[in-house]
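Collaborator request, handled under Task 6.
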Amino acid sequence: MYVERIDFRELLDKIDQLEVWRHLLGSMVYLEEAITNPFRADRTPGCWLSYGHTKSYYIILNDYASRMHHGWSIFDAWMHTRHVGFQEACQQIYNEFVLSKQPNEISRIQLENTRKLSIPKTRPHLTFLPRNGFLLRDKEYWEPLGITSKQLIEDGVYSVYKYRHSTKDGKIAECYPNDHCYAYTFPSKHTKIYRPFSNFKWYANITENDIGMYEDLPEFGEILFICKSYKDARIQANLDPYYNVVWTQGEHFKIPDHYLVDFYNRFDNIYVFYDNDHAGITNSNLIVEEANTLLDTDKFQSISLPENDLEWTYYNKPKQGIKDNADFILNYGAQALSKEIEKLI
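Structure tokens returned to the collaborator:
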């Protein structure tokens, strides 16, 4: 039988390997969780999934009790269970986990010429062990922003005791941070480590598809804000009046087309609310232009806190380098921020 050749590296960019492993193993497994090997007689959970040491773009099965199965990728397991060759395995995985999930029709808007996402070719290994609750220093960091520990937990944000990540040479490093360290988690099981006071501020295996607080949105609404960070988005959600809000992975990250279509279909007005510096304004304008062109609409608008022409005198404090919600609320409080946003929209 003829099988169209598929580049396995491109295929890895389009799928969630952990989802394929769950399909193959028949259970909801996670990275570095002790499991049994269903491909042999095994009753003792002594195996686990992790990113490979030499081929860090693979999630592999670790089974030191079986030389045959140790180091298997999803392709090895698929070939074994389906009794097919490598290219046929790639084709079947593509059909089941890529092709079958592409919508045949999008309500009101048909996506054409969908752009390829700039997803990294390799997704680094990243796991973490959360603390049992939050420390005093965590409270001192989040409380001035009006963000509570309950909200952090609800949003999937954890204080980190330790984390493990892959290095540039393919090894796994273990880190026990002694400073503020937080893990942002997503339904995709991807993670973003945030250390606000470290020289190594970020470490992540996220993609553009990891849009924060997306799962909390209502079915339909009048206004949606798109922020560039968790802090800004949570501050926005805490304001009175309440605003629907999501957050991207940063100002330089592209928002996938299918999210833009979804926002268009569900909300009357969409504001891309990034920092008022050059990077924020430039990328915010770019997203708005692309979205409005793609969807032939003017629903998307770019806004930012004014840099120079804001009347700061009624706050009784001088302007102090305010560029986003976090800066603003630390200097002038939530009530003043609400008033300023009402003026912008």
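The cover message to the collaborator said: "Residues 103-122, 308-318 have pLDDT under 50 and may be disordered. Residues 214-344 form a domain with the Dna Topoisomerase Vi A Subunit; Chain: A, domain 2 fold (CATH 3.40.1360.10). Please let us know whether this matches your experimental observations."
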